[in-house]
Every structure is written in structure tokens, then in C-alpha cells.
């Protein structure tokens, strides 16, 4: 780790915060300064202390005053908590990377629109389904009209902790909207399924893109393949289960009847830093968070400009 690495703070000591901790400990751009929780018996806080990381179980108010103004805060709690905490981060002059579906800041997917929001002080990583599916929708949109996009995201039930379950409603709303605003679909829809199968399944996502007329199928396939490779640079377990499948319509959709459709089947296997490999839904969020946090830190160092 470089001596001038940007300090980072994790708020939330559950599964996501703990997995994120192990990823940040490998970063050369970010230096994990502290982890904050609310449970003195939290296993995540105990693991952080074992790594020599400062901890607090008294909430974010307990540490904000000691954080350097360049600190990158990673919110790994709930949407409700981030809505309350966002103003505190702003008042302290800190930059927040939000791993909840709160949507306080602009929605960011690293391979799609990070450059557009590199100077913001609060960015939102949408949801695990959004991080998995939006790159595909954006890739299709680069070469074809996408009046309608739908994602069905299936994750192992045991990988969905209390925070994920509390955020289910926000998941569908936030992901649906981001399919439109970030992915470029005319209308977006998201569905989440918690699968109780034993042994637990890997995260799987089915992405349906309703297509307008005059589609170059080879160009769409090539664009999808290129996007998958870009995501794999920071989420190695992100992969296609099969080549994209094209069908001729007409198909009835909320955007009206469409002449064609492409279906993309994705699987996300976690890297196993803290969570089991089947928890790809959490791994893609923490991996994206590190990618975004490092980019924000490098931008601040390179330009010396104040974020907004």
C-alpha cells in the first residue's frame, strides 16, 4: 500500500462490510482507516480489530470527527440508514460510496457511467442485480434500440442477510429505474428471487432486452462480449452461461409490441474473500465499490479539484 493512499471508512460491519474490508486491505489506492457498526459483539468488528483496523460499535457519529476530509466512506448498512447518514457525510466533507439502494446520489455502474460522476461526493451502486444486468443492457443499447428491459435476479437465500431482506422493495424500484437511466432502456423492470436450494446456487441473472427493428445481431453479440470482459477485470466470476439468444416477435411488453428480443443468461461467482463463492450477489457489490472508490480517490489526487 502506498504511503499516500486515501483513507477509507466502512460503515456497516455485516457480511457486505466484512467482505469489503478484505478487498480494501489489498488496495494500493485506499487505506482502510476504520470500520463502524452498532453491535459490540459484531463478528465483522472483531475481524477488523484482528487486522489492526480501528473500530467503533457506537455508530458513525463516533468517528466522523476524526476522519480526514479526503476519506472515502463506504455505506454498507441499509437504504434507510444511508438516507439519514448522507447529510452527516456531506457536512464532514467526506465522499460516500453507497452500497444500499437509497439512491441519494447518482446511480453508478463502473463499466457504464463512472466517468460521468467522478466529481460527485455521493454515488450509489444501485443493487447487485443492477450491477450485473445494467452493463448488458447498456451494451445492447450501444448497437440497438432497447424500448424495454427486464431482469430476473436469483440469489441463494442464505446469501441474503437482514440488510438485503430489508431492502427488497428498494431493490425492485431502484434497479428498474437504473435500467432506464443508466442502462438506456425505455422502460425497465426488475424481479428478485431468493432461492432456498441446498446446496446454495450461484447468483444468476436473466436479462431480457426488447429490441426495435433493424437489429445487427452480430454487433449486439460483440458488444455484449466486450462488456462482459470489462466487468471481469474486477469481478472475475462474472460470466455468460450461454451465447445471447435472439428471438423474433412480436412480443408484448409495457413499451408496446416489439419485433424482437435478446435474452442474456449471466452467472456471478464470488471470489471467496470472506463470503462463500455462491454469494456472487454480494461479491459484485463489494468489487464494484472498491473499483468506484479507487477511481474517486485517484481523481481527487490527480486533479486536486474539490468534489461536488
Commentary on this structure:
The chain is of the alpha/beta class. It has two domains: 139 residues, Rossmann fold (3-Layer(aba) Sandwich), CATH 3.40.50.720; 150 residues, Dihydrodipicolinate Reductase, domain 2 (2-Layer Sandwich), CATH 3.30.360.10. The chain is built from nine helices and twelve strands. A six-stranded parallel beta sheet has the order 3-2-1-4-5-6, sandwiched between helices. Strands 7, 8, 9, 10, 11 and 12 form a six-stranded mixed beta sheet that branches. Helix 1 packs across helix 9, helix 5 packs antiparallel against helix 8 and helix 5 crosses helix 9. The mean pLDDT is 94.
Question: Which SSEs are present, and which pair or pack?
Answer:
Elements: E1 6-11, H1 15-24, E2 30-36, H2 43-50, E3 54-56, E4 72-75, H3 79-91, E5 95-98, H4 110-113, E6 122-124, H5 128-141, E7 148-156, H6 162-166, H7 168-181, E8 187-195, E9 203-211, H8 217-232, E10 238-240, E11 245-251, E12 258-268, H9 280-303
Parallel strand pairs: 1-2, 1-4, 2-3, 4-5, 5-6, 7-8
Antiparallel strand pairs: 7-9, 9-12, 10-12, 11-12
Q: How does the overall form come out from the CA principal axes?
A: globular
Estimate the strand proportion: 15-25%
* Tally of individual domains: 2
Q: Could you tell me the mean pLDDT?
A: 94
* CATH class assignment of the largest domain: Alpha Beta
End-to-end Cα distance: 27 Å
Number of helices: 9
Question: Which strands sit side by side, in order, in the main sheet?
Answer: 3-2-1-4-5-6
Q: Helix coverage percent of residues?
A: 25-40%
Question: What's the SSE pattern?
Answer: EHEHEEHEHEHEHHEEHEEEH
Query: What name goes with the CATH superfamily of the largest domain?
Result: Dihydrodipicolinate Reductase, domain 2
Number of strands: 12
* CATH hierarchy: architecture of the largest domain: 2-Layer Sandwich
The quaternary state of the protein chains shown equals single chain
Rg computed from alpha carbons, rounded to a whole number of angstroms: 19 Å
**Which structural class is indicated by helix and strand composition?**
alpha/beta
Amino acid at each position: 500500500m502506498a504511503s499516500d493512499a486515501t483513507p477509507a471508512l466502512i460503515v456497516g460491519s455485516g457480511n457486505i462490510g466484512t467482505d469489503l474490508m478484505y478487498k480494501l486491505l489489498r488496495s494500493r489506492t485506499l487505506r482502510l482507516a476504520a470500520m463502524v457498526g452498532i453491535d459490540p459483539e459484531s463478528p465483522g468488528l472483531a475481524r477488523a480489530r484482528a487486522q489492526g483496523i480501528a473500530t467503533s460499535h457506537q455508530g458513525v457519529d463516533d468517528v466522523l470527527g476524526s476522519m480526514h476530509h479526503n476519506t472515502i466512506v463506504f455505506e454498507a448498512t441499509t437504504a434507510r440508514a444511508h438516507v439519514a447518514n448522507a447529510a452527516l457525510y456531506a457536512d464532514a466533507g467526506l465522499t460516500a460510496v453507497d452500497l444500499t439502494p437509497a439512491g441519494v446520489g447518482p446511480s453508478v455502474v463502473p463499466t457504464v457511467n463512472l466517468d460521468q460522476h467522478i466529481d460527485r461526493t455521493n454515488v450509489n451502486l444501485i443493487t447487485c442485480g443492477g450491477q450485473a444486468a445494467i452493463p448488458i443492457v447498456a451494451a445492447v443499447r450501444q448497437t440497438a434500440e432497447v424500448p424495454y428491459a427486464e431482469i430476473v435476479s436469483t440469489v441463494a437465500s442464505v446469501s441474503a442477510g437482514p440488510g438485503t431482506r430489508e431492502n427488497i422493495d428498494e431493490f425492485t424500484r431502484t434497479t428498474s429505474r437504473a435500467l432506464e437511466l443508466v442502462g438506456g432502456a425505455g422502460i425497465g423492470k426488475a424481479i428478485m428471487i431468493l432461492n432456498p436450494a441446498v446446496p446454495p446456487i450461484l447468483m444468476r441473472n436473466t436479462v431480457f432486452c426488447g429490441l426495435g427493428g433493424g437489429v445487427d445481431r452480430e454487433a449486439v453479440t460483440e458488444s455484449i462480449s466486450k462488456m462482459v470482459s470489462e466487468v471481469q477485470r474486477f469481478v472475475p466470476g462474472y460470466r455468460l452461461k450461454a451465447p445471447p439468444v435472439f428471438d423474433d416477435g412480436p412480443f408484448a411488453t409495457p413499451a408496446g409490441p416489439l419485433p424482437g428480443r435478446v435474452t442474456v443468461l449471466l452467472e456471478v461467482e464470488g471470489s471467496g474473500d470472506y463470503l462463500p463463492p455462491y454469494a456472487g450477489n454480494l461479491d459484485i457489490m463489494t468489487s464494484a465499490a472498491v473499483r468506484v472508490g479507487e477511481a474517486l480517490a485517484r481523481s481527487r489526487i490527480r486533479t486536486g479539484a474539490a468534489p461536488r
